């Protein structure tokens, strides 16, 4: 492997046959052919066959196999065939579901894959990182993820965190100088950058020297472990529940078996009882339904612009009670347009600058020079604040390329949101000029003189007061104000932060960034949903408060606090005031961590947005870290658990609604499955205690649990959110899904279905055990299919609307058709051990299966009327 650190930049460029302008498209194609895509090969995935066989590791399957063997022993070959067919079908379904879930995760991963900025044909463009080839010229800026190895050819204070490679957590300062050595450690290769590092500061141009598996990262992780999706808390607690349930079931089975044997029931029949009970009780479909519903939920959210990076976040979203949101771009449109400009003691419209006035000319030059963005042929690249300034220059026919070529940038201190300033050095009229732009309040304290049409003079208190008043006037209208200043340097040398002082004031440029149209409504929805929206911004307090008022975040009695004021607050004071603070202005990313932690200490689940490189720790600290898909840095996307592809606050609220809905749907599906199982268990237990014949064959229960029950369960899982969902308070994240009320509901509903199943069984017994078993099975199956409608939501079906979830109707009809096929098609009759029924018996089954739903719906209607009445009475009492 060649070393590049000891070569000059020209040599490296030469060895890839390229220039600082970047590769041409034809060369890119050529290199791609030669070196392949810039991706790391993943460890060989489990083959589909392997996944298939893994499905047999389950306790359920073992019980089923026992059931199959017992069936052979009882001479029931058909039953054995069905059981083994079911086992295989179940394994196929499990495999398909596994593969599908993997595909859906992969597609989400692809959506959140990083991009990289490159120079190609001399033009800066953004491309997916997989398209980077050796020889490409990468443009690195603070917040970027380094996506390939490369040699630095131009360096502007670049600092990189290489902890993923070297373990060193401190950022490393880079250089473009040659290192004249033959062999040095990775950490000492200061003129190289390596894939997976994070740019924490500065800027650089880099020529890519290795991609994909040839990078240092590729070498270490020769085979990348495939990232395994971790189970969500809900999945873990359900797995745990299933295991406990299985043990309890086995114990009860043993007791039932013992009871039968004690009563001198033949051993095989006793065994059939035990097996029937086990099959009835084990919720076969439970864990796959939860995964399917979570996966469908994330797909839906991705379509609605929220990419979920971990399934855990879907659940977490349902309990969010605080949203800390950035202002710029999330609550506002991030479409900045310059408005009024204050220069030379007067406030003028941005298109009214007089370039013969030296102060105005300097201001405009600095707006273009102290600026990294471009706006060419409608394609705007860079920070919208800076793009607005470039567009301002266009009004005066000043093209950024031309100005920047004429007055080359010699040194710089890049912008960072802690310092809130940016400085660049250029030679103008033979002088070394350092231009600085930044936050008004930060810069004003550092000016000592002022530039006017009459030249330079010391700044007076009057000048300052006028500037402060102008800033106030502009900010109160919600305008963002940027201050400009400059100073002359005696010589060109590397800048330090101390250089950012003793300035000459140039002027103020205000720009408008209107709130997004949907922000106000989303804020209202939040408040109705018991979620507190909080604005956290780097912008000025007055500007922030004006916007926050417009969209309803800052209401009467609420406070706006600056980062400085926050610093002065003790922990106790902050905790006391926390509930009332709606706006944090002029904050640095570190403040965000303090705000998140404070709310977390109050037991709240906090969602926090972030876009900058320094936001990563806060995003990680928040329960739901949200990155911006369009404007966010790769670093923030890496740290977040959700990415907004439209950067929009309203999308967060939509995602929370979806999160709540997914959780509610899963809960309803679980209720449906468990109450259905309860009815089966109670019927078998009843028969066992009353010394009656076995009411169901294992095939009957398998048919219900795996086929007819799965359909309504999935239909319930895709139920649309109701309006009421946003009226509820956020769910307590610590609350277990299996609350007392929930279990009571399951028990009651299970009991009601069981009672009618037992009635059907008794009616059937008059015609013999075979008819009895068929009637019990059919009533249970159909009763559970009807029950699917009951579990769609808390409300009665009249409120929900029968047609509002067409899948639930399809699920019911498919299940009913399947049942009728089993009942009426002779070969299936034999296979599923059902007797031929008379029409009266069939009619009775439908009636007995429908009655539990009538009762359950009746209870709901009664509750709706009763609860409503009592609520109204409460209201009256309150008045
Ligand atoms: P939010 O935190 O809501 O996204 P923001 O964009 O104002 O808001 P920062 O990017 O941290 O937050 O900016 C903080 C302040 O720094 C701004 O209010 C502005 O005064 C100044 N500023 C922003 N961008 C630049 C820039 N490119 N150059 C110089 N100063 C800037």
TrEMBL record:
The UniProt keywords, alphabetically, are:
ATP-binding, Cell membrane, Membrane, Nucleotide-binding, Translocase, Transmembrane, Transmembrane helix
Annotated compartments: Cell membrane
InterPro entries (UniProt xref):
ATPase_P-typ_cation-transptr_C, ATPase_P-typ_cation-transptr_N, ATPase_P-typ_cyto_dom_N, ATPase_P-typ_P_site, ATPase_P-typ_TM_dom_sf, ATPase_P-typ_transduc_dom_A_sf, ATPase_P-type_domA, Cation_transp_ATPase_P-type
Specify the superkingdom.
Answer: Bacteria
Question: Entry's Pfam families?
Answer: Cation_ATPase, Cation_ATPase_C, Cation_ATPase_N, E1-E2_ATPase
Which NCBIfam families does UniProt cross-reference here? ATPase_P-type
Belongs to which family? Belongs to the cation transport ATPase (P-type) (TC 3.A.3) family. Type IIA subfamily.
Provide the Cation-transporting P-type ATPase N-terminal domain boundaries.
3-76
Q: How does it sit in the membrane?
A: Multi-pass membrane protein
Task: Give the matching PANTHER family.
Answer: CATION TRANSPORTING ATPASE, SODIUM/POTASSIUM-TRANSPORTING ATPASE SUBUNIT ALPHA
* Organism of this sequence: Clostridium sardiniense
Which Gene3D superfamilies does the annotation name? Calcium-transporting ATPase, cytoplasmic domain N (3.40.1110.10), Calcium-transporting ATPase, cytoplasmic transduction domain A (2.70.150.10), Calcium-transporting ATPase, transmembrane domain (1.20.1110.10), HAD superfamily/HAD-like (3.40.50.1000)
Quote the protein name from its UniProt record: Cation-translocating P-type ATPase
The transmembrane residues are 56-75, 81-99, 245-265, 271-296, 672-694, 700-721, 742-761, 767-786, 807-825, 837-856
Listed CDD domains: P-type_ATPase_Ca_prok
């Amino acid at each position: 492997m060649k070393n590049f650190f000891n070569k000059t930049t020209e040599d490296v460029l030469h060895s890839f046959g390229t220039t600082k302008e970047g590769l041409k498209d034809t060369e890119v194609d050529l290199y791609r052919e030669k070196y392949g895509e810039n991706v790391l090969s993943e460890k060989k995935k489990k083959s589909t066959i392997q996944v298939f066989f893994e499905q047999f590791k389950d306790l359920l399957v073992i019980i089923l196999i026992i059931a199959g063997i017992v069936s052979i022993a009882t001479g029931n070959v058909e039953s054995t065939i069905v059981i083994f067919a079911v086992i295989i079908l179940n394994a196929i379904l499990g495999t398909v579901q596994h593969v599908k879930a993997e595909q859906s995760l992969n597609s989400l991963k692809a959506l959140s894959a990083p991009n990289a900025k490159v120079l190609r044909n001399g033009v800066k463009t953004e491309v997916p990182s997989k398209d980077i080839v050796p020889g490409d010229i990468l443009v690195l800026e603070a917040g970027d993820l380094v996506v390939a190895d490369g040699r630095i050819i131009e360096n502007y204070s670049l600092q990189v965190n290489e902890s993923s490679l070297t373990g060193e957590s401190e950022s490393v300062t880079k250089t473009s100088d040659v290192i004249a050595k033959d062999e040095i450690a990775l950490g000492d290769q200061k003129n190289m950058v390596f894939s997976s590092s994070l740019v924490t500061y500065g800027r650089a141009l880099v020529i890519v020297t290795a991609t994909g598996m040839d990078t240092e990262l590729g070498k270490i992780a020769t085979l990348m472990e495939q990232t395994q999706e971790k189970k969500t808390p809900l999945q873990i607690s359900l797995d745990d529940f299933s295991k406990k349930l299985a043990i309890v079931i086995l114990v009860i089975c043993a007791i039932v078996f013992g009871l039968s044997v004690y009563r001198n029931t033949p051993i095989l029949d006793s065994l059939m009882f035990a097996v029937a009970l086990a099959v009835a009780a084990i919720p076969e479909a439970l864990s796959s339904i939860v995964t399917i519903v979570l996966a469908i939920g994330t797909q839906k959210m991705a379509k609605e612009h929220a990419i979920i990076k971990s399934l855990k976040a879907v659940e977490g979203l349902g309990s969010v009670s605080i949203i800390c949101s950035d202002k710029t771009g999330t609550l506002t449109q991030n479409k900045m347009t310059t408005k009024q400009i204050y220069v030379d003691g007067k406030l003028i419209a941005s298109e009214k600058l007089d370039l013969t006035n030296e102060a105005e000319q300097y201001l405009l030059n600095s707006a273009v020079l102290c600026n990294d963005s471009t706006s060419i042929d409608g394609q705007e690249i860079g920070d919208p604040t800076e793009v607005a300034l470039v567009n301002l220059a266009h009004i005066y026919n000043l093209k950024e390329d031309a100005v920047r070529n004429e007055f080359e940038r010699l040194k710089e201190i890049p912008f960072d949101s802690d310092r809130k300033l940016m400085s660049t050095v250029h030679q103008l009229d033979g002088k070394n000029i350092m231009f600085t732009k930044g936050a008004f309040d930060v810069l004003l304290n550092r000016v000592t003189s002022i530039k006017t049409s009459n030249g330079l003079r010391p700044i007076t208190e009057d000048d300052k007061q006028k500037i402060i008043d102008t800033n106030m006037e502009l900010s109160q209208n919600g305008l963002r104000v940027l201050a400009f200043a400059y100073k002359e340097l005696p010589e060109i040398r590397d800048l330090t932060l101390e250089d950012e002082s003793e300035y000459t004031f140039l002027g103020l440029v205000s720009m408008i960034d209107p709130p997004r149209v949907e922000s106000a409504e989303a804020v209202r929805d939040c408040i109705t949903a018991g979620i507190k929206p909080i604005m956290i911004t780097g912008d000025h307090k007055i500007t922030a408060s004006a916007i926050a008022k417009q969209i309803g975040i800052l209401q009467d009695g609420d406070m706006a606090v600056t980062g400085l004021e926050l610093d002065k607050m003790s922990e106790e004071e902050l905790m006391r005031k926390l509930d009332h603070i709606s706006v944090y202005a002029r904050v640095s990313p570190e403040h965000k961590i303090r705000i998140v932690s404070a709310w977390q200490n109050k037991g709240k689940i906090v969602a926090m947005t972030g876009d900058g490189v320094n936001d990563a720790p806060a995003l990680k600290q928040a329960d739901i870290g949200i990155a911006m898909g369009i404007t966010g840095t790769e670093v923030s996307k890496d740290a977040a658990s959700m990415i907004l592809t439209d950067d929009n606050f309203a999308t967060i609220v939509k995602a929370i609604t979806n999160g709540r809905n997914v959780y509610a749907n899963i809960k309803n599906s679980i209720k449906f499955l468990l109450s259905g199982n309860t009815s089966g268990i109670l019927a078998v237990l009843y028969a066992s205690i009353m010394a009656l014949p076995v009411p169901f064959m294992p095939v009957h229960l398998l048919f219900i649990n795996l086929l007819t029950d799965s359909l309504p369960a999935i239909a319930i899982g895709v139920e649309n959110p109701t309006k009421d969902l946003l009226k509820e308070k956020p769910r307590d994240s610590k609350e277990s899904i299996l609350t007392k009320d929930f279990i009571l509901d399951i028990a009651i509903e299970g009991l009601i279905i069981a009672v009618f199943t037992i009635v059907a069984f008794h009616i059937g017994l008059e015609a013999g055990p075979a008819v009895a078993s068929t009637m019990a099975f059919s009533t249970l199956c159909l009763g559970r299919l009807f029950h699917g409608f009951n579990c769609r939501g808390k409300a009665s079906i009249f409120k929900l609307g029968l047609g509002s979830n067409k899948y639930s109707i399809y699920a019911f009809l498919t299940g009913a058709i399947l049942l009728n096929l089993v009942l009426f098609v002779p070969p299936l009759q034999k296979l599923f051990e059902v007797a031929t029924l008379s029409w009266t018996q069939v009619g009775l089954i439908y009636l007995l299966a429908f009655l539990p739903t009538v009762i359950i719906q009746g209870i709901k209607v009664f509750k709706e009327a009763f609860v409503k009445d009592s609520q109204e009475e409460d209201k009256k009492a309150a008045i």
